[in-house]
Amino acid sequence: MKTNLCLFSISLLILAFVSCEKDEVSNDNTFESLELDSSLQSTSLISLPPCTIDGPDCGNPNSTVTFTYDSDTNNQNITWSVAQGNMSLTGGQGTNQATFSLASNFSGGKVNVTAGLCDLNKTILKCPQIQPCGVSITSVYEVNALGSNNVAFYTVPTLSPGWSITSSTFVVTRNSGIISTHSGTLNSNGYPQIIISVPCSPSSGRVDKVEVTVNASSGSNSCSVTIEEDFFSVCGTGGF
Question: Rounded mean pLDDT of 216-240?
């Protein structure tokens, strides 16, 4: 009987030992799994070094443009190249600033820069051609009609071929501080002009300044030019 009790006790001890071993193995595996998950999460949180490429959004044929690479990481191997378009690298290879020459047939392209983990592209378009204004004015003139309080203010525009005047505006400033706006008309010579009454009475407000805006067009193109002239108390000759 004593022998059986001893064997039973030994069996219980063996089972308890095996169970503890399994728990230890299971706990070790769980800890390793947590460590692995933590490591993966830490890896996923590591971001690439910030980097940028700056430069013009457009360029003209037969001109040069400059692009700049910027990064928080120092001592990188920087490589510039033309990814697309009729242009060529002319300077700055290996540095953070590169110059590109745009060919005569340039119509748009793309610049590339690589440095470490950074690989960036910058698109550059052909700049739209600005239509030069087909009208110019250099001065504003005034004419006092003898024996009248009326004064004519006009300008003599120069027009490019195919351009014509569509409208004009005169902004008149008097020495009294009053400002008035007038729509111009074309006189017999085809010049924008206004005729307004400017008595020489001290209280009437002689004209000190006139600003003229002339609008012109050619087909679908249009433009405007503005000029300002100081007259220092101009008035008519009709008396008070």
Answer: 87
CA distances from 165 to 138, 221, 236 (A): 15, 12, 28
3-state secondary structure string across 164-220:
EEEEEEEEEEECCCCEEEEECEECCCCCEEEEEECCCCCCCCCEEEEEEEEEEEECC
Beta bridge partners of 174: 207
CB atoms within 10 A of CB 115: 20
Task: Answer with the residue of higher pLDDT: 138 or 23.
Answer: 138
pLDDT tens digits, one per residue of 143-158:
987 678 899 999 999 9
How far are the Cα atoms of 101, 109, 208 from residue 230, in angstroms, in the given order? 47, 50, 6
Where does residue 98 rank: exposed (0-12), middle (13-18), buried (19+ CB within 10 A)? buried
Sign of CA dihedral 175, 176, 180, 186: negative
The pTM of the full predicted model, rounded to 2 decimals, is 0.51
Q: Which two tokens stand for residue 234?
A: 């101009």
- Write b or e for each residue in 184-196: b if 16 or more Cβ atoms lie within 10 A of its Cβ, otherwise e: beeeeeebbbbbb
